[in-house]
User: Fold these one by one.
Assistant:
Number 1:
Amino acid sequence: MKIIRKFLADETGATAIEYGLIAAGISLAIIAIVNGLGSNIRTKFTSINTSLK
């Protein structure tokens, strides 16, 4: 029983998991922002290209 209690009380890996989740959240936000900006920039360049022809 002592081993099980010690295992359940051990929180050494929790910090690494939390940092991993934070990094995943930040990367998802960056991907969403870049994806949104990419489509806006594509339409701007298409508009400029059309007006130059």
Number 2:
Amino acid sequence: MVAGGLRVLFCGINPGLLSAATGHHFARPGNRFWPVLHLSGFTPRRLAPQEQEELLRYGLGITNVVARATARADELGAEEFREGGRLLTAKVERLRPEWLAVVGVTAYRTAFASRSDLHAMLAA
């Protein structure tokens, strides 16, 4: 769910098992992403995971740091996060979103050696 010219690229940690099975980001019932996205003013109404394609209409995209699906994010290794960080860096450099919003501070800290690495990538 990415394209060039996005206002915001949201980046989750990795897909959960239900998200992998359905092909929809943040698909687990009760996940707070979709309600918070609307309540924060990014979308005019609350979208359901199966409506994720509509994000592009609002200049929004969604991806993950790590592509491998797991039941819990703590099943991922540090090297997977670092490799995901490298791939995400390349994606952001290619797509040039105005903002990158990483959902999950642990993923952010592990995927990027320092905040300055990510800031330099976004400023370039």
